[in-house]
Amino acid sequence: MVIYELNEVPRKLFEFYANSHPKSAFATLMERSTLFETQAADVGELSPWITWPTMHRGVSNIDHEISDLGQDLAIPNKDYPSIHNLLASQGVRVGVFGSLQSYPLPNNLDNFSFYVPDTFAAGSECFPEELSVFQAFNLSMVQRNARNVTSGITVKDAYRFLVQSTKLGLTVDTCLKLLRQLFNERINSDRLVRRRTSQVEIAFDLYMWQLENTQPDVSFFFTNHLASSMHRYWPAIFPEDYEQGMFDEEWRKRWAGEIPHAVKVANSQLERLLRYVDKEGIELIVCSSMGQAAVENTHPVESEVLITNVKTLMGYLGLTGSDWEPRLSMAPQVVITPKTPTVQERLKRLKDISINGKQIKYAETSTGEIRLSLAISNQERIVILDRGKEVSPADLGIRNIHLQDAAASYAYHVPEGVLLHYDPNRQTRNMGVKRWEPISVLDFAPSVMRRFGAIPPSYMTKEAVFGA
């Protein structure tokens, strides 16, 4: 079985592309798969770093308590292991490439064909070890490209990866796409935002090489590139979802190609996977742990006030590098791990500091990490007051970031996602109206386990709904 984790894609977008491109992989999957609309099972705000662990572990966030990127997963991994580890522990050969909250590597890799943690991992360790050069480059690019995409690269990490890239599976076709991307950036600087998609094109080549050469019983590949594009450019594709005149025609025309480009990349990858599973006679699952939909009462966002240098902020509060360490996270959040009790005490000072009348919010996770967040939209200038005294934004590591695409989260998380189960050995035909059966994301893990004859833990209470 191959599991393609297409983050946050809802039924609406899947159907939109399949119907408008009847010869696409999306259309093939719509016609020949068993269709499910998944329902998230978590309490509170939905985020992919919460909903994917729920899907992988068969329990909601009430039980697994995973709430942030960079969180220490030692306790959740012990109490509610991921499906990757559960399958491997029962003799199933597993491959993992980028699934969220998959860091660190398992202690026992005996039944893993390959294991590449997610793009927010705290280290570049991979299995086999030669994939670590890719992960080091991948992590460095994620760190550089937070709210805006930059034109620079980390030369050392890029060079180390490029030297090994063809041995790891990078194809000539993808190299040509990367060169075309660089050329298009020169002609139109707006195309710089597509580097987010270029990263997953590289990753997918490496995944396919591992898949074809190690042939695990089940493998997982995660991509966020389409979710990222939907957040920003949903109004360009679905203007009817918003109040008339909310987004001007020039903005819509300027960014109208971004979601189609991201879908085209996902479709190309699914075409490769369909050829592979048809040839091998194995099943394919395309799924999301939740979806996206238009945000009501939104407005165009030209700039955001963000924490851009957490080291400077910590220094302003009187903390040194020996007191804390950073974790990769997704803007506008910043996550750190305290190393001394001084951190919690010093963070109380944030209550005395106002940024344009707002405060930096902070909270402690169940495993001890600290999450800080600040995002103030469309400010002409920043005024920071510390106990009434004005302070320079640079002294706190805060900047007013002009957004290169004037795009905020115009679409955001909703509980409904998708799961398409394609079995080349069954002649499923969805003619006319496509029927999507509702299921919980909690159905996923026990269903996959039973598909391989593995026994789900007793806390997984759902019955198998596919693949059994």
Question: How would you explain this protein's 3D organization?
Answer:
The N and C termini lie close together (12 Å). The chain folds into 2 domains: 339 residues, 3-Layer(aba) Sandwich (Alkaline Phosphatase, subunit A); 100 residues. α1 crosses α2, α7 crosses α8 and α11 crosses α13. The longest helix has 23 residues. The chain is 38% helix and 19% strand. It has an 8-stranded mixed sheet with strand order 4-3-5-1-6-19-2-20, with helices on both faces. With 468 residues, it is an alpha/beta fold. It contains 17 helices and 20 strands.
Number of strands: 20
CATH C-level label of the largest domain: Alpha Beta
How large is the count of helical segments?
17
Strand content: 15-25%
CATH superfamily of the largest domain: Alkaline Phosphatase, subunit A
CATH architecture of the largest domain: 3-Layer(aba) Sandwich
- Total discrete domains: 2
Helix-strand makeup class:
alpha/beta
In which range does the helix fraction lie? 25-40%
What coarse outline follows from CA principal-axis ratios? globular
Low-pLDDT runs of 5+ residues are 145-152
Cα end-to-end separation:
12 Å
Rounded radius of gyration (Å): 22 Å
Task: Describe the secondary structure blueprint for this structure.
Layout: E1 2-6, H1 11-20, H2 25-32, E2 33-39, H3 48-57, H4 61-64, H5 74-79, H6 83-89, E3 94-97, E4 112-116, H7 132-144, H8 155-168, H9 172-187, H10 195-214, E5 218-223, H11 225-237, H12 249-255, H13 258-280, E6 284-287, E7 291-294, E8 303-307, H14 310-316, E9 324-327, E10 333-338, H15 342-347, E11 353-355, E12 361-364, E13 370-373, E14 376-377, E15 384-386, E16 389-391, H16 393-396, E17 398-402, E18 411-414, E19 416-422, E20 437-440, H17 444-451
Parallel strand pairs: 1-5, 1-6, 2-20, 3-4, 3-5
Antiparallel strand pairs: 2-19, 6-19, 7-18, 8-14, 8-17, 9-10, 10-13, 11-15, 12-13, 15-16
